[in-house]
Amino acid sequence: MEIQGLPGRLLADLGPAIASGALPEGTVLRAEELEQRHGVSRTVVREAVRILESMRMVEPRRRVGITVRPKGDWDVFDPLVIRWRLAGADRSAQLRSLGSLRVAVEPAAAALAARCADDDDRRELSALAVELTVTARAADLEAFLAHDIAFHAVVLRASGNEMFAHLKDTVGAVLTGRTEHRLMPHRPREYAVQLHREVAEAVCAGDPERAERAMRTIVVGALEELDATLPD
Amino acid sequence: MEIQGLPGRLLADLGPAIASGALPEGTVLRAEELEQRHGVSRTVVREAVRILESMRMVEPRRRVGITVRPKGDWDVFDPLVIRWRLAGADRSAQLRSLGSLRVAVEPAAAALAARCADDDDRRELSALAVELTVTARAADLEAFLAHDIAFHAVVLRASGNEMFAHLKDTVGAVLTGRTEHRLMPHRPREYAVQLHREVAEAVCAGDPERAERAMRTIVVGALEELDATLPD
DNA sequence: AACACTCAAAAGTATGACGATTAGGTTTCG
DNA sequence: CGAAACCTAATCGTCATACTTTTGAGTGTT
User: Does residue A157 have a pLDDT over 90?
Assistant: First the structure.
C-alpha cells in the first residue's frame, strides 16, 4: 500500500512536514538541499517530488525551486494526504471534513446496499452486528473498533458503487483516529450499537429508507460527538 | 494542473491506455521497453511509473516488471484517474458512480451552504441563477454549461467543507462529459433551471431544508436521465 | 522610466555503472 | 523420486555525473 523504497521514506518525511504546516505555503525547497539533508541521490528526490507534485502539494519551477502550494490546492481525497493531515496539526479540521463527508455518503450507501447487497453481504453484515453487540458489552474497545470498521466497509462495498467502496479506508482512518485520541465514549453506547443492528436488519430486509435513516442517525451522532469533543 | 514535462507526456499515454483497458489487469511492462517505445530516458520512465504507482494503477516488482493492477485497486478519486476513465471505455460506469456521488454530496453541500455561505457567495449564486435562466432561454448550450459548472462549484465551496469544495472539478467533468456526449436534452429544461433558482433562493434565505431538497431533485433527475440514456 | 541583453541558478533530461531482489531453473541430498 | 538448498540471470532500484533548458534578476542602454 505504501510507496516503496527510498522515495517512500523521503515522502514519509516531506509529506507530514508539509501537511503539518512545518513547511508552510510558499516555502521553497531546493532539490540539491534535499539530496544532502536526506543522504539520497537526485533520482530519489525527483521521484518523491514528482509524487508530491501529482498530489498538488508542491510545484517545482526552474530557477526558483520546489515551492509548497497552498493547502487549498492539495488533493484532499488522496489517502496519503488524509493520513498525513490526520497525524498532524489540522487533525481537527480533517476529522470534521471527513465527518461531514460520512454524513453525506454513508446514508446513501446504506440505502443502495439495501437494494443491491447480495446474500454474502447480508450475512456478513448480520454477523458483524452481532460481534459489535458482544464486544460492546464486553467493553473490548479494540475488537469493537475492528468490527465497526469492517461493518462500515461492508455497507460501503455492498452499495455497489466503486467510489463509495473506496471510502472504506478513509472511514476506517476516522474511526481509528477518534478511538486513538479518546474522542469517543469510554465504552460503546448501547444506543449506537442498536442502530448498527437496525442498519443490518434493514439491509437484510431490503428496506432502503430504514437503512438510510438508521445510518444517518449513526453518522450524525458521530459528527455531533466530534464537534462537542474537538478542541478548537 | 497537469504534470509537466516528458513524464507528463508519458503519463498521458500510459494512464489512458490502462484506464481504457488497452493494457488490462496483469499486463507486464518493462521499463527498458517503455524507454525505447517512447524515446525517453530511464529517469523519465521511472518518474511516470512512480506516479502511476502512487495512484495504485501499477506495481513495479523486481525481476518481474511493472504489472498493471486490477481496477478495484485504483485511486478512483484521483482527478487524473477520473478523467482517464471518463475518456475511455468505462465512461458509463464512471458517470454512474459519479452520479451517485453527486446525489449523496451535493444536497448535503447545499444544506451546509444555506447555513455557512457569506454574502459574496450568495450574490454570486444569485447572479449565476440569472445567467442560467438567460442562457437556457437562448439555448446557448456552451454558456449554459459554463454557468452550470460555476453554479455547482459555488455551492460546493460555500458549504465550507474543503472536501466538498474539491469535488468541483469532478462535478465539472461530469457536466462537461454529458454535454459533450449528447447525454442531455438538446436545450436545458425549464424545470431544471427553475430548481437551480430555487437552490439559490434557499441558500440566500438561509433555508437548509429547502436548498437540500431542491438540489436533491436536481441531481436525482440528472442521475435518472443518465441511467435512461447510457448504453449498457 | 522603459526596454533589451546577459548571466547564472535551478530544475529537467540523458547515460553508464553498480546494487539488490527474486522467479525459475539446477543441483544436491535424503 | 521428491524436496530442499543453491545458483543464475532478469529486472527494478539507486547513484554519480554531465549536459540541456528555462527563467528570474541584475545590468546597462536608450
Answer: yes
Q: Please write the tens of the pLDDT for every residue from A59-78.
A: 999 999 999 999 999 999 99
Look at residue B205 and give its three-state secondary structure.
helix
Sheet holding B28-29, edge to edge: B28-29, B65-68, B58-61
Subunit contact A112:B103, Cβ cutoff 8 A: no
Work out the number of other CB atoms within 10 angstroms of the CB of residue A198: 18
Cell of B35: 524507454
Cell matching residue B227: 441511467
> Do the chains contact at B78 and A78, CB–CB below 8 Å?
yes
Nucleotides of chain D touched by protein CB (<7 A): 9-18, 21-24
Model confidence at A28, pLDDT cuts 50, 70, 90, reads very high
Sheet holding A28-29, edge to edge: A28-29, A65-68, A58-61
B161 contacts: CB under 8 Å, gap ≥ 6? A96, A97, A100, A101, B109, B112
**Tally of CA atoms within 13 A in the half-sphere of B183 that contains its CB:** 24
Query: B206: Cβ–Cβ under 8 A, 6 or more apart, which residues?
Result: B114, B115
Domains of chain B: 5-73 (1.10.10.10), 90-229 (1.20.120.530)
Asked whether A52 and A15 are in contact (CB, 8 A), the reply is: yes
CA distance B203 to B218: 15
Closest CA to B107 of B211, B225, B223, B222: B211
3-state secondary structure of A38: helix
Place of cell 489512458: B16
CB contact under 8 A, B98 and A164: no
Q: Is the CB of A6 under 7 A from strand D?
A: yes
- The whole-number pLDDT of residue A231 equals 67
Q: Which residues in chain B show pLDDT less than 70?
A: 1, 182-186, 231-232
Question: A–B: how many Cβ contacts below 8 A?
Answer: 97
